[in-house]
Amino acid sequence: MNKIKLFILLVGIMSVFIARTQQIPFYNHYVINPVVINPATAGASGDLNAYLTRGQRYMGFESGAINNTLSMEGKFAIPNSGFGILVSQQSIGLHDQLSAQLSYAYHVKFNKLNDLSFGLSAGYIDNRFRLEEINVLHQSDPYLMGMKSYRPTYDFNLGVKYRWDKLSVGLSVPQLIGNKVKFAKENTRGYYSLARHFMGSASYELKFASLPKLTIAPQGLVRFVVGAPVQYDLTAHADYEDIGWFSLTYKSDYAIQVNLGFHILKDLHVGYSYEYITGSFKNNYSGVNHEFLLGYTFKSGKSRKVVRRIEVEVPVEDPKLRKENEELKRKLKEKEEELRKRLKELEETQNQDESPRPEETEEVEEPKKVVEEEQVEDEEFVIPNEAFEENLDFRDGSNYHFVEADGSDSPAGYYVVIGVFSDDGNVNKNIRRLKGLFPGAYYVKNQKNTYDYVVIKYTLSKQKAYKALLKYRNETQKDVWILKYKMD
What we know:
The chain is of the alpha+beta class. The protein has helices at 2-16, 319-353, 362-380, 424-434, 462-476, and strands spanning 48-57, 65-75, 81-92, 95-109, 114-129, 150-164, 167-173, 180-182, 191-193, 197-204, 206-207, 214-225, 231-240, 244-251, 255-264, 268-277, 289-298, 394-396, 402-403, 413-421, 442-446, 451-459, 481-485.
């Protein structure tokens, strides 16, 4: 509840800033592709995302405004880093602008609930005026003399984003330097400045246990330019995983926007948005404002939609404790090797004892073998004491609340867990991966934190649970632990 209150407060504070005209284009799909307004989001999802958009506005006024944008962003070779490429072409009246930007973002993860991202983009801007289309009374007008139709420049954009669990806030500053674009050297009025913009955003994700694939995210965005009125957006966005999204946006004193999109085969994205003009502009304009989106996501296998695997083990900062922990793990590994050798010796001894004897028949020999195997499992398999020390393998889940996929309460017992995930895609992918080794692999949901726990073995027997743990660890060399759930 505190995060929701903070979200409402942030949107309210941003809306108080005073909105004015904008040089940078409006993007209707920035909720789907946030890198177009904030370079700090580059690489945050863990996947490689490519988007192509085309926006058309003010078409009722002569040539109107057209904005075509191609963007690509994803993880960078440097750990915790992301990159972005943004190419944009926009035409407004007689003015054409082509820009290309490269972005770099660095993500600092404090823990599973908090992370901070910084982003910087640098770009080249090609500015052109179609002087031949200007219709003037006096061709010798001094303001037209010496005017050039082409002037290049460069600029930087800065961005920062902070996430606290489901709450995200961001700030970006496009056209950071504010360079002048001079079309005439001697004419002091033959230029315009790239005004520095300030853009603040806040969003909050709402998840529902009954509909785990649905995410509803209210969002606010404020655009501020010194010397011009404030413009802000208030958006209600709903996204259903693997199907599509729908959003409704109010743009202050400008328009109401409807956005509809689909995820085709999960990774191909098609979207359309329409703006219904309102406010002071409505009586002077009858054109169509809309934007098209086409995108594709190249999955990396480690994405965060929020695809964040929870780090269950508490990091050990004290060198002494870390050394003791490593020593306990070493002893446990030695004990496992010893147990495997003992089991192998028992199997060899059992095979020798079961060699055919003249006085015995086959019918007597086979049942005797089964009984002996059961005795070996119950009596000879001993869990090392080290497994219970320092929560190495057995952990307490008494404060959890597990439910099955159908919503019913999970039974008490021992759950052998290989991972905890917040994204259904990762859950299903891991279950499919485990089917060959553990055909009964499934998942349970913890109602305390809404995360899914992938389980390879559920049993009331401590010994059987530990044998499953050893089998998984030996086959995969990956983390695995046993949750003791509601067992006295």
